[in-house]
User: What shape does this take?
Amino acid sequence: MKDFHKIVVAVDGSASSIRAARVAARLADSLSVPLVMIHVFPLMSNDIAGALGMSATEIETLRDNAAANTFSEVREQISDRDLDIQEVARVGDIAEEILHYLNNDPDILAVLGRRGRSAIGSLLLGSVSDKVLRHTKTPVTVVT
Assistant: This one.
């Protein structure tokens, strides 16, 4: 088995994603690989955005602001490590965007929190982590 070439952690600012980021940072540090933080702004489609009267530029601004706030919060929590940190911001279905980024790459290790910000999703294993686990061939670690 080849070594992982990067660690990818999904972050949304929730306590669960902060815990996942801490674990991901430790792994990236010990493996001397980049840490990629991915934040997905949960807008379902351009049709919905259009119905709300939002332009593509407004959606991108919302995404960028939400991602910047989340990335900043996570960086504060893992600032004790000297890491190569990359940031990826997307808009769409959270699980689908994470799956698309991972692209079934067996040389990436994905780290996910068990629950995100969604109250409904917190009833069981989070719907995002559950969907990613069921639909990827990329190794995944779920942090509780």
